Description:
The N and C termini lie far apart (56 Å). By secondary structure, the chain is α/β, with parallel strands linked by helices. It is built from ten helices and ten strands. Helix 7 packs parallel to helix 8 (226-236). It has a seven-stranded parallel β-sheet with strand order 3-4-2-5-6-7-8, with helices on both faces. It has a three-stranded antiparallel β-sheet with strand order 1-10-9, covered by helices on one side. Residues 54, 98, 161-163, 165, 167-170 line the site of one calcium ion. One calcium ion binds next to loops.
Amino acid sequence: MTPPTARAAGLCCLLSGLCLTQAHAQEQTDFQCRPVTCSTLLPSLPVDHAATNDCAYRAGNLWWVDYVAGSLTWGDHKVEKAVVVAVFDDGAYIDHEDLRNQLWTNEAEAHGKPGVDDDRNGYVDDLHGWDFVDNSPDVSPKGECRSRISHGTFMASLVAAERNNGVGIAAPGSDGARLMILRVVGCNRGVNDDANPQRLARALDYATRMGARILSFSAHWNATTPELDRAFSEIADRQDAPHPAIVVASVPNKGEPAAGYPAAYTFHRIVRAIPIGNDDMISPGTSVAPPGLNLGAPSACVIGAGGGPDHYRVEQGSSNSTAILSGLLAGIWASPPYARLTADEFLAGVVRGRMVKSPRRSKPGSRTPYLDGVPLADACLLETERRKARVCPHPGSQREPRP
Ligand SMILES: [Ca+2]
Ligand SMILES: [Ca+2]
Ligand SMILES: [Ca+2]
């Protein structure tokens, strides 16, 4: 029998950097404003939303936003109720310029007293989430993360970077999502830094009790425990779950034979992100995902928040696909006419009813179950006569040819 910490070691390894292959070694404060052309998908075309002034978007560097028709989640409507997306990762630098205004906030603690558990949820001063590694309200990455990339910071920005603030990037969840930061792994490779099942179960309970409706796992682990199975089943499978939520799970693309957890669960509230690398191709080495709600989302040449408060970098990997899909689902769910749907109604009507039936599909993959390709995630169901996105198939016309 493997001890729990070793069982979950896959998560720690991933979050220590294996999940992301570094495409550009240096993170910088200004490169996002110059055209970056590392993808053949949508290179430097005019952007879909002319009024958005974020530097990287205007420079044509956010191909992945337009690829999922993310601009259709922006804008005209007032967000009635933001969808809280819990990011399970190594924490996040919440003072980053594209993150600080995008956070979920525990209002009871925001208006409460320091040192007091104002909402009596068992966590003192939990303002924007919780650090389950060091049992602290400070959700910033710690230890070696300070001098390296913070995986969680990058992921949080792909979910919901602030839009139209003149700097950095925008994201499909910019308007509709709010970020709950849950630090579930550390960076020092010590025993206490592993993502153990008890810690994950506590974080799952916290996230859903505090109102997260999408749980974003850009990480995976290879074995599980009955305790963790129960915790996921309560949230993602139980019909009368008190706090149901949609789990967005990463399907890895480094040649792993199986998708790992939580993607391997067949629970009905699991949505899996299949990494799309370049040119509508499923990323080579993508693991076998179980049948279900599997949607292609961009993985390569993705620009996001770095370690400094105004730093950005370019990364690739299936982690990106997962965070982008989480933000996209949140952006759609927060938009009329979907904003009032329950998790099961949203899954049935939008994800199962529309998105997985999308006429946009990836190219065929080379192995089962990808021989027919996968449907590509997008917000095209929000398209109107007045607001269109380039990638959305228009009735009576072919998809616009690429240059
Ligand atoms: Ca509290
Ligand atoms: Ca307090
Ligand atoms: Ca921005």
